[in-house]
Every structure is written in structure tokens, then in C-alpha cells.
Amino acid sequence: MKEPIQKNRLQRKIRRAQHLILHFLHTKRYAKKLDIYRKTPFDKIWRIESYLHLANPWLLLAAILALTAASLQGHIPSTTTIALGFVLLLHQKYRTWIENQLILLTAMIRNLWTKEIAWKK
After folding, report:
1. Is the per-residue pLDDT at 69 higher than 80?
2. In this structure, are residues 65 and 14 in contact, taking their beta carbons and an 8 Å threshold?
3. Closest residue by Cα to residue 23 from 33, 11, 31
4. Where are the domains of the chain?
5. Does the pLDDT of residue 2 top 70, yes or no?
6. What's the predicted TM-score (pTM) here?
7. Which of 25, 26, 13, 27 is CA-nearest to residue 104?
8. In whole angstroms, how large is the CA radius of gyration of the chain?
9. Residue 67 in contact with residue 78, Cβ under 8 Å?
């Protein structure tokens, strides 16, 4: 039996995503400002993770919007791709990935107006 996502669980995920985004945006810059930053082999992983958390959700949104616009104009491959995306939502890992991308998008938009510094219990 599956139960729907609880509201507080979703809010907690969004808040964690907000902190993660701020971490990727500010930590390396802060270390450079303090002159304690040292280039390591980990930098390549840092760049990849930063891309996956900061750029990838926006690319997904742009792709969905472009496919939807093309589909509305009668473009068959776009319609097929959208249909495939809906079918893939039956797959747990794909559904989780889409959910996490939407959470990251929501967190980035919320960070534009407010940054939740304190965690509520």
C-alpha cells in the first residue's frame, strides 16, 4: 500500500533542496574569497554535481515546454516523446528523478524570494 506524499515531507525536501542550491552557489566562491580554496581532483566531480543540480532541472523544463509547443502544432515525434515520458512515469526510478527535478526547480524559484535559513521542526 502506498500513501500520498505528506505535505511536511514535500516541504522538507524543498527546504533541503534550497540549502543544497545555496551550497553549490556559494561555498566555492566563499573559499576563494578567504583564500583557502585549493584545486583538487574533486573539482571535476563538483562541476558535474553542480550542473546536475543547477542546470539540469531548467533544461528539463525547457525541453518539456518545447516538446509541448511542438506537439500542439501537430509535430508527431514530439507527441510521441511526450507520450513516452508519461509511460516512463510508471517506472519508479524515472518518476523519482522527475519528482526531484521538480523539487529542485521549486527550490530555485523559492530562493529568488526567500532563503529559509532556520529549519522548522
Report:
1. yes
2. no
3. 31
4. 7-113
5. no
6. 0.80
7. 13
8. 18
9. yes
Q: How many CA atoms lie within 13 A of 27 on its CB side?
A: 11
Question: Which residue carries 505528506 as its cell?
Answer: 6
Query: Rounded to whole angstroms, how far apart are CA atoms 72 and 74?
Result: 5
Position 45, amino acid: I
C-alpha cell at 38: 585549493
Helices (H), the chain: 7-33, 42-54, 56-72, 76-88, 92-113
**Model confidence pLDDT, tens digit, residues 7-57:** 688 989 999 999 999 888 888 888 888 888 888 888 899 889 999 999 999
pLDDT at site 74? 94
The CA angle 23-29-35, to the nearest 5 degrees, is: 130
Kindly tell me if the per-residue pLDDT of 72 is higher than 70.
yes
> Rounded to an integer, what distance in angstroms lies between the CA atom of residue 43 and that of residue 66?
33
Query: Coil, strand or helix: which one is 34?
Result: coil
* Alpha-carbon span 119 to 121, nearest angstrom: 7
